[in-house]
Amino acid sequence: MERIATNPNPDDIVMSPDEAAAYTSLPKGQLAQLRYAGQGPAFLKPAPKTVLYRKGDIDVWLSASVRHSTAEVPA
To answer: Which of 3, 35, 44, 46 is the most exposed place for a label (fewest CB within 10 A)?
Structure first.
């Protein structure tokens, strides 16, 4: 992800679902299921068949999933 290292504000980098899947290490299909359920990272929908993610939104979503025990209930 060379764009992340060279961008003045990496949080504003826009990623395709394939790039977001690679960045999160989640399958692209799982990201689609999370979008459908309203449980995944915030996304952009500039056209009917176009989905994009901002790196900053993915990072916020990942940070919210931090747990210290498997018994912890998500907030």
So the answer is: 46
